[in-house]
Write a structure and sequence with these properties.
Elements (H helix, E strand, L loop, with lengths): L12 H18 L14 H10 E4 L19 H4 L1 H5 L8 H5 L3 H4 L9 H15 L10 E4 L9 H7 L5 H11 L4 H11 L6 H7 L17 H7 L1 H14 L22 H20 L6 H18 L2 H7 L3
Antiparallel strand pairs: 1-2
Bound molecules: zinc ion.
């Protein structure tokens, strides 16, 4: 996995295998004469989803495109647009041409168990989307691989595609580029991937652990709790928000998020704060030494000044306000 994509530059075999499997789906399209066609490809549903995301299909006569499985309807697979209808439709392998002919797709819906409200909603949605579809009898269906200049599949582009749009990965890239001591960057990378040895993870392995967060002693310790939800952490962040005159750093203004971290504009500041919080957590766990939130805040201020002197430019402009 390349560093800029959230890894340490090591090939991710699982994703590489997936990239290679997409070749089957590509061949199925571009070389329909291949003998193995009609046999089942080794691809799973995620392969299909990724393939749909990587390709643009322009339907002509609709004879090559699969009604349910191809990502032809505004770039999406019909089965993703109407998943519960897909479940009760037979057969599932009609082409677009066959499915649209005299609304065969509606007759394919097996209504034995009756339609639920969800089915009806999907039916109406699909009906609306299909209404504007006009088949062009004298044109073949076209497929373009979106990730190469040639418009053709390559294994390398299929591999890279699996890291695109990965917010975590974008952060990871930023982490490695930011000015900060390497130990802090490595720690931030770990916490961003939820790989730090917090109690919840120790517990899952059956290793010794404190059940509650050593900073507030009132909630289970997870990476997210420690870095964003904990009362103590929030107190520190709000002190920092006032100090740097950055209201967006104030925890009350944080957006609810599943991510481990809310990066503020200054990644350097974030790296510093989460590192110091982690050190405080470890001081409490391993050395039974406690610093109050204001105490940790002044420690962070001193440390920020040292980082700024050593070359952390963003941090320097933030703290120069004082
Ligand atoms: Zn806590």
């Amino acid at each position: 996995m390349p560093k800029e994509n959230g890894g340490l530059g090591i090939l991710n075999l699982e994703r590489f295998a997936r990239a290679l499997r997409l070749r089957w789906l590509w061949q199925e399209w571009v070389s329909p004469e291949k003998v193995w066609l009609g046999t089942k490809t080794p691809c799973d549903d995620i392969d299909g989803l990724l393939f749909a995301a990587c390709t643009t299909i322009t339907v002509g006569n609709g004879k090559r495109t699969s009604f349910w499985h191809s990502g032809w309807l505004q770039g999406r697979r019909t089965k993703d647009i109407a998943p519960s209808l897909f479940k009760i439709s037979r057969p599932k392998n009609r082409t677009v041409a066959a499915a649209l002919e005299r609304h065969t797709w509606i007759r394919d819906i097996r209504r034995a168990g009756g339609l639920t409200l969800g089915h009806v909603q999907e039916l109406l949605k699909l009906w609306g989307m299909l209404r504007s579809t006009q088949l062009q009898q004298n044109q073949e269906d076209q497929i373009i691989w979106k990730l190469t200049a040639s418009g053709k599949y390559t294994a390398a582009s299929a591999y890279k595609a699996q890291f695109l749009g990965n917010v975590k990965a974008k952060r990871a890239q930023a982490i490695w580029k930011a000015w900060a001591p390497p130990k802090c960057k490595f720690f931030a990378w770990l916490i961003n991937q939820n790989r730090v040895w917090t109690s919840d993870r120790l517990q899952r392995r059956g290793w010794p652990h404190n059940p509650s967060c050593p900073l507030c002693r009132s909630a289970p310790e997870t990476a997210l709790h420690l870095m964003a939800d904990c009362r103590f952490t929030r107190r520190v962040w709000s002190l920092i928000a006032s100090w740097t005159a950055q209201p967006t750093l104030h925890p009350q203004l944080w957006m609810p998020s599943e991510n481990t971290l809310q990066w503020c504009d200054s990644l350097q500041l974030s790296l510093l704060v989460i590192w110091e919080i982690w050190c405080e957590r470890n001081a409490r766990v391993f050395r039974r030494h406690e610093t109050s939130a204001p105490g940790l805040f002044s420690k962070i201020k001193n440390e920020a000044a040292a980082w700024a002197l050593a070359g952390a430019k963003d941090l320097e402009s933030l703290i120069r306000r004082e």
